[in-house]
Design a protein that fits this description.
This protein has 117 residues and is of the alpha+beta class. It has one domain (4-112): YaeB-like fold (2-Layer Sandwich). It is built from four helices and five strands; from the N terminus they run E-H-H-E-H-E-E-E-H.
């Protein structure tokens, strides 16, 4: 099997860094950060670990910015979500899991166009 490399988008990296800074003071941030790290390892073991998102539901933002053709999401504690796409590295024999976003429930609903109840 090809090795799996996990890369964070600039937006996901920003959220990850923020959680790292908050983790010393916030149990919630620490819990979410630990879950992200565990999920990244699960994706490394099985790149199709996440829940696939139907092509018609892929946010337009991802299609325009990253020209993705597949999308998976992983649930995190506190109703947070992590979205990622899979792609082949053009220069190496490996699969890249590109984490597009790490968002809270409110931002996730906004991104996917879900209505607030």
């Amino acid at each position: 099997m090809k090795p799996i490399k996990i890369i964070l988008s600039p937006e996901a990296e920003e959220t990850y860094s923020k959680l790292e800074k908050e983790a010393e003071q916030s149990k919630t941030s620490k819990m979410i950060l630990e879950a992200i790290n565990k999920k990244k390892e699960l994706i490394r073991i099985n790149p199709h670990y996440g829940e696939p998102v139907a092509k018609k539901l892929i946010p337009k933002e991802y299609l325009e910015k990253y020209q993705i053709t597949n999308l998976f999401h992983v649930e995190l504690p506190g109703f947070w979500r992590m979205d990622y796409t899979l792609t082949n590295n053009e220069t190496k024999l490996e699969i890249i899991a590109f984490v597009l976003s790490i968002t809270d429930h409110k931002e996730y609903n906004k991104k996917y166009g879900y209505k607030k109840n």
